[in-house]
Structure formats: structure tokens, C-alpha cells
Write a structure and sequence with these properties.
With 529 residues, the protein is of the alpha/beta class. The protein has 14 helices and 23 strands.
Length: 529
């Protein structure tokens, strides 16, 4: 069997893994094993990968920013040239629709962010050059030493893939080597992307070991990778439990680790908004909760409404729409089992199911019924931690609040989230509630959205895809929003009294590329005379 197992990419070469065992992905639409076999790598593979990434880290010091940008653009081109095969594989491994999800949304977003990082690399301003001429002290952001280990999630096979996703683009854009740990839910998609990235590496003259690919490893070996002193940083997207375990290992050696974990993404609907737009908001909520079968990190899992007859009518409409919306396919059996467990935990804590709350046994694939739960505000206050368990799937829970004082208490008890949403009208009542509640909510989230659901994450410079713990491990950083997403994979380097010709180009006196730099406390594109 080992001869038919796909190779890993280590030290710039596709070769057979030193494997513990092998695995196959499962088509979640049919529960049938896909006839491809991938290795679970041993410690020997990991040690070699870490060593090679450190070597590449040194080699990349001599690679110009323009060559890194060339690679990212060439890679984007090659992805588009092979897009039909890539999205077909992603469809088989995840159950996501080819159109519009994979072909028209996720793949274009992936190639767009690769090209935007390339532009940022060429433009240089992401390095945040600062110069104080009076004392001749200059600083900027530059790459880290050692490889960046990327652990990718199961729910975005393209745009957050360990090969070519946002962490990959940002890390290489900042001048780092990368160790890509694939997700076992979509190894074939990752392999196809890695094949194109490897060819783009060769075409653009980048070091062959700029990136490496390991498909899977046991948890204990993953902890060795995260805790290696030769790693520059770690990026992880996934469950809170696994993220915190990796964090503990990384911190033993002082490795920076950027985590995206669990988020309930509260939606606060003010009274006049429900009164005037209940049908519209109900439709938007159900669409957002079931988008991607509820497997978005920004899915609205907690809805806050004030108790009155209009809230009751709104809840009835949400229930009806949940029941009318076809149940989707989940990514894997483990996702279905965990969703069932977490809905069970919510029910044990006192949540009342209005619809769903069980597996869809009639489906040929992994499926769970669209689920709506409700609780009273007093229940949330009593057991706030229990009611903030993330149920990853087509589920949401409505909290019915008695008054504004209770609303304030509930918001104060919220954990950190990626997003917080407010639906409101311009009436005096909604205006006063907005002014009183939203400042509290803003402290709990990385992104505030008004009058729209939070599942749309635009790839624009101003986007923040981060937030307080447990949404992420550090509230100051974002995995989306170029060039800021690149700065996670860099360090601030200061040059004190260094002669002009020995400085990095971005902080030399001349500025032929007209980079934005802070010179003597003012932003300018001028050269220094």
C-alpha cells in the first residue's frame, strides 16, 4: 500500500513519507472513502522539515521582494489555470457546491489575496519604515528566523488552506519559509495546490524549500512542531481545545502563535428593527446560519432580542424558515458528532429546542437538522459559559432579554468574538439603546457590523478578522486585511547609527519607489536630502 500513498514535499523534493500510517478523505455527501491515500508523517519527517525550513529562512534573506511577489502572482495564475480540477476535488472532499461557493467565491478570493500580498510586497509600506534623522535611528518590519508552521482548518479548503491561503500568502510575503500542515478533510485539494505552488517556485527562482507540505501527523508530533525552538511562528485555525494545547507547547520555547478558535458572533436586534423588519431580518439570519451548512467561523450563533410580542413573532418566523431550508451536508462525521454533543450541552444547560436539534438520519451524507434554540436572559446570566459553547453547524440560539439592564449584563458576560452585529432603526428608542449597548459590545468583538449578517468577510485592507480570546489568541492581529495580516509574521528591527549603504533599501535616504515612511514624526514619500 505504501507505494500508492501520495508523497510529501520536504526540502524541495516530492518523496515518500516516513509514515506511521496512511489515511483517505471521506466524501461527506456519500460517506464513501475517496480512493486516494495520504501519509501520517513520523517525527523523522517533522525534524527534517523544521531543519529545511530554517535553511530556507536564511536563503530567503538573499531573495528580493520583487521575486517573492513574482512567485505569489505566478502561483495565483497557475491556480486559475487548474481551477476546474481544484474545485472538483474540493467539492468531493467537503461537499461544498462547485458553483457558486468554490468556483465563483472562494477560489477568486484566494487568488485575489495572493495578488494583493504581492502588491504589498512590492510597495514596501507594510514594513512600516520609521526614520529619525537627528539621531540616525531607523526601523522597519522584516522576516522572522525559522519557518512559519501553518495548521489549516477544515471549513475553507481554498482561502484558508495551508498552501495558498491567507496565512501562507502573508508569511511568504513577509519573507518567511513555510511549513504547511494540511487538513485531513481535504488532502487532495491541498496536494493540487502544492503541486502548482512548487512549479511556481521553480519558475520564479525561489529556494525550492521555501514551503514544505506535511499532510497529517499525530497530536504529539504536532506539539513537537509547535514547540521547536527553530520555528519562527505558528498560525492555527480550528477548535479551542486543540489551539490552546498548541499554544502551551509553543510558549514553552517562546514561539509566537496566532490562533483563530471559537466565536458565537452575537447579533443584537433592537426593538424597532424587529417591529419594522422582522421578516427581512429573519431571512437574513437563517441564510447566514445555514450558509456553508453553518460551518463559518463568523456564523451568528447567538441572537439577542428584547421580550415583546414582536420578538415572539420574529422567533416564529425564524423557526419556520429554519424548517423550510433544506438541511445541508457537514464536512465530516466528526463535525456531525461534535455538533450533536454541543447542542446536547446547550440543552442540558437549559436551552429549549424549537426545531432541529438532531441528526438528519434520512440524508445519505453527514447531515444535521437546522436547529433553533431559545433561552431567557436570566438563564444566560446564570450559566453564561455553558451557553457560549460553539455549536459548529446550522444552529443558532435566541436569548430573550427583559430590559436594557439585563442586556448590559449579558453583553458584559460575553466572551471574545470575531464579530458583533446590531440591527437598529433611527427611532429615538433604538438610538438610545444603541448608544448604551454598542460601546459595551464593541469591546467584546473584532468587527462590528450594522444591519447585515457577519458571514461576509471581504478581502480588503480595512478588514479585521480577529478579536479577543477565545476568538483568537491575540486581539491585536488579523488573519485577513492586507498588509496588516502580514505583520504577524515579522519582527521589528532597529538600525542605530548604521551607514546609509548598509541599511535595508526601505530605510535608506533615497526613496526612488516613493514608499510611505514616517520621517521625523511625519508620513511622507520624500527622500532624505
Amino acid at each position: 500500500m505504501s507505494s500508492s500513498v501520495f508523497p510529501v514535499l520536504i526540502s524541495g523534493t516530492w518523496r515518500q513519507a516516513e509514515m506511521i500510517q496512511y489515511f483517505s478523505a471521506i466524501n461527506p455527501m456519500t460517506k464513501v472513502q475517496i480512493d486516494e491515500f495520504y501519509p501520517v508523517s513520523s517525527k523523522q519527517d517533522i525534524f527534517e522539515t523544521i531543519k529545511s525550513a530554517a535553511i530556507a529562512s536564511r536563503e530567503l534573506l538573499n531573495i528580493s521582494p520583487s521575486k517573492r511577489a513574482d512567485f505569489l502572482e505566478k502561483f495565483a495564475d497557475r491556480i486559475e489555470n487548474r481551477k476546474e480540477e481544484i474545485v472538483k476535488m474540493a467539492n468531493q472532499e467537503t461537499g461544498y457546491a462547485i458553483e457558486p461557493r468554490l468556483l465563483n467565491v472562494e477560489l477568486p478570493r484566494m487568488t485575489d489575496q495572493l495578488r494583493k500580498v504581492a502588491c504589498a510586497v512590492r510597495e514596501h509600506s507594510w514594513t512600516m519604515p520609521v526614520i529619525d534623522t537627528g539621531v540616525n535611528i531607523r526601523s522597519l518590519n522584516q522576516s522572522l528566523e525559522g519557518g512559519i508552521a501553518i495548521f489549516s482548518p477544515n471549513n475553507f479548503p481554498l482561502v484558508f488552506n495551508s498552501v495558498g491561503g491567507s496565512d501562507f500568502a502573508g508569511a511568504i510575503g513577509a519573507g518567511n519559509s513555510v511549513i504547511c500542515k494540511g487538513n485531513p478533510s481535504h488532502p487532495g485539494t491541498t496536494r493540487l495546490l502544492a503541486e502548482e505552488a512548487h512549479e511556481a517556485i521553480k519558475e520564479t527562482g525561489m529556494p525550492l524549500n521555501t514551503f514544505q507540505l506535511i499532510y497529517h501527523m499525530e497530536e504529539s508530533i504536532g506539539l513537537i512542531l509547535a514547540g521547536s525552538p527553530d520555528i519562527g511562528a505558528i498560525a492555527y485555525t480550528g477548535s479551542r481545545k486543540c489551539g490552546m494545547t498548541l499554544k502551551a507547547s509553543a510558549e514553552k520555547t517562546g514561539n509566537p502563535i496566532y490562533l483563530e478558535m471559537s466565536s458565537a458572533n452575537p447579533v443584537l436586534i433592537l426593538p424597532d428593527a424587529i417591529k419594522k423588519r422582522d421578516s427581512q431580518i429573519a431571512e437574513e439570519l437563517v441564510k447566514s446560519c445555514t450558509l456553508g451548512t453553518g460551518q463559518f467561523c463568523t456564523k451568528p450563533g447567538l441572537v439577542l432580542v428584547f421580550k415583546d410580542q414582536f420578538a415572539d413573532e420574529f422567533i416564529d418566523k425564524v423557526k419556520k424558515l429554519m424548517e423550510e431550508t433544506p438541511d445541508g451536508v457537514l464536512l465530516s462525521e466528526s463535525v456531525m458528532i461534535k455538533l450533536d454533543e454541543n447542542v446536547g450541552h446547550l440543552r442540558e444547560a437549559g436551552a429549549r429546542p424549537l426545531t432541529g436539534a438532531s441528526r438528519n438520519e434520512a440524508s445519505p451524507g453527514y447531515s444535521y437538522k437546522n436547529t433553533l434554540l431559545t433561552i431567557e436572559g436570566s438563564q444566560f446570566i446564570e450559566k453564561s459559559s455553558d451557553f457560549q459553547i460553539e455549536a459548529f453547524g446550522p444552529q443558532t440560539m435566541i436569548v430573550i432579554m427583559e430590559n436594557v439592564e439585563q442586556a448590559e449584563k449579558i453583553i458584559e458576560l460575553l466572551e471574545g468574538n470575531l464579530t458583533g452585529t446590531i440591527y437598529s432603526e433611527t427611532s429615538e428608542e433604538d438610538k438610545l439603546l444603541y448608544e448604551r449597548l454598542v460601546p459595551l459590545l464593541t469591546r467584546k468583538v473584532g468587527r462590528i457590523t450594522n444591519d447585515k449578517m457577519p458571514t461576509d468577510v471581504a478581502v480588503v485592507t480595512s478588514m479585521n478578522h480577529g478579536g479577543p480570546y477565545p476568538a483568537t489568541g491575540h486581539p491585536a492581529f488579523s488573519s485577513v486585511g492586507i498588509p496588516f495580516s502580514m505583520q504577524r509574521f515579522s519582527m521589528r528591527k532597529c538600525f542605530d547609527g548604521v551607514s546609509d549603504e548598509r541599511l535595508p533599501v526601505a530605510i535608506q535616504n533615497a526613496n526612488p519607489d516613493k514608499i510611505w515612511r514616517m520621517i521625523d514624526a511625519s508620513w511622507t514619500t520624500d527622500s532624505i536630502e
